[in-house]
Each structure stands twice: as structure tokens, then as C-alpha cells.
Amino acid sequence: MTPLAQMIQLVVLTALALGAVYFIFYRPTVEAQNRQRRVVAGLRPGDEIVTTSGFIARLLDVREDERGEVELLLDLGGVTVRARPTAVAERLPRPEEVAQPPHPVMENPQSEGERAAPATPGRDG
Question: What phi and psi values does residue 58 have, to the nearest 5 degrees?
Fold first, then answer.
């Protein structure tokens, strides 16, 4: 193999390795961060959220603390806590977002005369 071919091979393999690192590690991380930002941007007081610790809380307020950083006031069933926006894992659906499935009508495929008689224990038939 000539030195030029070796150099081209090295450049191509390096580009493939960098592309793999981008698509395997960097891109999913950026997409997760963007998804989390969209969730936090769509929050409003009264929303129920799940924190990254697994707590289910109701959002009371979004405000800036004394350092100018955004913080969330959460109600954890009577306990009010402050949290960073990065603590929000997901927002639970609002009541108006939950579609009410239609109640299926249960039809009995067997008519009264086709029903099997209940078995009686202890009798050989």
C-alpha cells in the first residue's frame, strides 16, 4: 500500500470514528437536553411533574432566586420544596389532554339457551 493510500485510509477511518462518536454519544445527549428544555418551557403552575428522583409533585411557581437563576416551587403533598429546572424528568398529562376512551358495549356472543350448565362438584355425569 502506498503512503498516500495509507494516509487516505487513516483520514477516512478517523472521520468514521468521529462520526460514530457524534451519533452515538453527542447527538442523543443534545436531543435529550432539548427535549428537557421543551418540557420545562411548557410548564405552568398547577402542572403535575415527575422529578428525576421519581417524586410526583405539583408545580406551584416558576421564579428567579436571589442569584438570578430559575427555580421551581413544587408541592410534594403538603411539603413545598425548591428545585432546579433540570430536576424535571417529565410533565404528566393535564386532565384536558387525557382522551377519554369510549366505553365498549359488552355483547354476549352466547344466547341464553347456549350457555353451559354449571358443573356441580362431586357428581359424575
Answer: -105, 130
CB atoms within 10 A of CB 15: 10
Q: How do residues 6-38 score in pLDDT, each as one tens digit?
A: 999 999 999 999 999 999 999 999 998 888 888
- The structure's pTM equals 0.55
Q: Which domains does the chain have, with CATH numbers?
A: 3-95 (2.30.30)
Q: Which three cell numbers stand for residue 120?
A: 356441580
d(CA 20, CA 66): 43
CA pair distance 114, 43, nearest whole angstrom: 57
Distance, in Å, from the CA atom of 85 to the CA atom of 91, rounded to the nearest integer, reads: 12
Q: Nearest CA to 91 among 42, 54, 125, 124? A: 42
